[in-house]
Amino acid sequence: MTSKRARLTVRSVLSGFLAAALLGSAATAAMAKETFTVDLVNEPSSLDPQKQWNPDSYYVYRNIFDNLVTRNDAGEIVPQVASAWKQVSPTEMQFTIRGDIKFQDGTPLTAKDVAFSIQRIIDPAFASPQLGQFNKITKAEASDDKTVTVTTDGPYPVLLAQLTKLSIVPEHVVEKVGDDAFNLKPVGSGPYSFEAWQRGVSVTLKRNDDYWGDKGPFETVTFRAVPDASTRVADLQAGTADLVVSLDSDQAAQLQTAPNAQALTALTERIAYLGINTGKPPLDDKRLRQAIAYGIDREGIVEGILGGEGKVVGQIVSPAAFGWSDSIEPYPYDPEKAKALIAEVGDGAKAELQFATAPVFDQRIVQALQQMLTEIGLKVEINMTDMATYLKAAQGPRDSQPMLSFGRWSCSCQDADGIMYPLLESDSAWSRYSNPEMDKLLNEARSTLDEDKRRADYEKASELVKDDVSLLPLYQVAIIYGASKKLDWQPTANESLFLNRMSWQGE
């Protein structure tokens, strides 16, 4: 009897353990569906949406804040904070602001916050790196709680497209705590609210259950800094990450047979380019810049390294953007011509060229560019830094900006103004080029509603870029994400991680 009772007791205990384990597993699975983990390359350099413009920052803060207007998944401009708008004069656009939006501290969002946000980003003293995309705006005024009028210094055809990137910040919070404190603990009106920022490790957001629009599907979202791409892929395959960014074609191929992961791709507005400091010797010699252009095998990069993911271009504008010209071809790959130009330059071409990069960029491309330039006789030294340091140098004084750099630029506005103006206009913080002819073309193109004149100006500007090699366009970028097979989400050309447009399959 004792033995039988013991067996029954053991069986009961084991059954209890099994039931508890099953309940625990179910609870863990349910919890896991509410916890969403994203592996970025770097931690955000800023959570203030008007302080920085780079992918790792944008991926996070885009979910904390609402924008004045936004784009739907088809790329069309649609209402967000503004429910309607109208052009009341060639230089004035009036916006009607929704009355049901609250910031995450419970304070209503009003037209005054919209006006404040615009005035803040156009203030030269605030020194936003986005200033070049908004500096046609001269003022924003709220006439009541629901009406804002935005005035530009002339007709500005790209205003609405640029305003898709304008995040609305709460005036009362920014004014009370100051810019630095606001960056450390931002308050927005978006579908997720800021929870914690563990420097160098992760940023955690919590779902805003009082959000006025489509609610986020995940209770908690953690964005982690994972610089090594192979580690991001391993995290995804192990199930410790649900979404990972910035994969290359080789890593995407690894996911084709993965039982629980998938690769998601989209051809973007972004253009990959080689940045050149045209004012810094020896790169102030046009012949040397042309040698660089002839020495780069773009087709080899796209087909051999990117696996055909991307499209070779000869201009710093996406084919999907206004201002693209079908008549401008890229420099042909001609290493012998490149060597001849270098020989003409002589001793000046012997200087070592510092090539700036950061982990967010595909280092296979960076190394291939270095090798190609080395093969035509140039000395190129790669200088790897974290993204924040890279961006600080890129926006610094021109004489301290990188000699060479690999970059990928997108304005999310589908207009040449959003990429050519910041990268090529003399007064832009990003520009390493100064040419009155270029300045004239870019400023006239952004100051007329005549689309034919704009197209003509941008074509001339692209021809000037090619002739002067003020920078070197390489290819239109295809972005590749890795995701859980359970994730239902379609990436878009503007590369926004809208968390509230995602869901778990079956929900």
TrEMBL record:
Positions of the Solute-binding protein family domain: 76-427
Pfam families: SBP_bac_5
SUPFAM superfamilies from the UniProt entry: Periplasmic binding protein-like II (SSF53850)
Highest rank taxon of the organism: Bacteria
Places the protein is found: Periplasm
N-terminal signal peptide: 1-32
Gene3D superfamilies: Dipeptide-binding Protein, Domain 1, Dipeptide-binding Protein, Domain 3, Periplasmic binding protein-like II
InterPro entries hit by this protein: Peptide/Ni-bd (IPR030678), SBP_5 (IPR039424), SBP_5_dom (IPR000914)
Keyword Signal among record annotations: yes
Stretches of the chain forming a coiled coil according to its record: none
UniProt keyword list: Signal, Transport
Entry annotated with the keyword Signal: yes
Recorded family membership: Belongs to the bacterial solute-binding protein 5 family.
Entry protein name: ABC transporter substrate-binding protein
Source organism of the structure: Jiella mangrovi
Lineage: Bacteria, Pseudomonadati, Pseudomonadota, Alphaproteobacteria, Hyphomicrobiales
